[in-house]
């Protein structure tokens, strides 16, 4: 099995999403020794905003000059995604949505003809069969049934994005309310950690 581990939080050792994604990877690799792990830390090695040259390269236009290096990196990011059987993502909520670092990575794996294609009537995901596990963290409470659920453009976006690519096996390990009080933070982390221990390889 090949596992792709993506972290996007800017908080380093203070990050709960990093703590949880690392625990998920450990759980899965303990369950399946020999798993190959590919890791990208999008805060330590940021993926820049998508440029016109990079976008055109997805359509077969050869890049010129400095853009060649960015296009080569994009090709590697896409190859790592395509090779992965399981993708583990640390995805904190920033301002009701995703870190821009993670959004930039998503731009590199949504490629027509590679991970999806348009048909005469709709679109077809080409990445089915993968498993995606997302360590989702939020400062407030945005789960279903909460007063602020309508502001969740984090988990809803990720579910829709990967669904568009044809991926239906999507699991969220969530810790929310992390900024409300120390007691609620500790309880949320404990509950999410217990969910991690239930994951099967």
Automatic annotation (TrEMBL):
> Which stretches make up the Flavodoxin-like fold domain?
1-198
Q: Which gene encodes it?
A: azoR1_3
Chemical reaction(s) catalysed: 2 a quinone + NADH + H(+) = 2 a 1,4-benzosemiquinone + NAD(+); N,N-dimethyl-1,4-phenylenediamine + anthranilate + 2 NAD(+) = 2-(4-dimethylaminophenyl)diazenylbenzoate + 2 NADH + 2 H(+)
Cofactor dependence is on: FMN
Spell out the protein name for this chain. Answer: FMN dependent NADH:quinone oxidoreductase
Q: Which organism is it from?
A: Paracidovorax wautersii
Concerning its family, UniProt says: Belongs to the azoreductase type 1 family.
Going by the UniProt record, its keywords in alphabetical order are: Flavoprotein, FMN, NAD, Oxidoreductase
For this protein, the Enzyme Commission number is: 1.6.5.-, 1.7.1.17
The cross-references to Pfam families, in alphabetical order and at most eight, read: Flavodoxin_2
Its function? Quinone reductase that provides resistance to thiol-specific stress caused by electrophilic quinones. Also exhibits azoreductase activity. Catalyzes the reductive cleavage of the azo bond in aromatic azo compounds to the corresponding amines.
Regions that span the bilayer: none
Report residues binding FMN: 9, 15-17, 93-96, 137-140
Per its UniProt entry, which superkingdom is the organism in?
Bacteria
What subunit structure does UniProt give?
A: Homodimer.
Cofactor binding mode, per the note? Answer: Binds 1 FMN per subunit.
Q: Which PANTHER family match?
A: FMN-DEPENDENT NADH-AZOREDUCTASE 1, FMN-DEPENDENT NADH:QUINONE OXIDOREDUCTASE
Query: From the Swiss-Prot or TrEMBL record, what is one GO molecular function term?
Result: oxidoreductase activity, acting on NAD(P)H, quinone or similar compound as acceptor
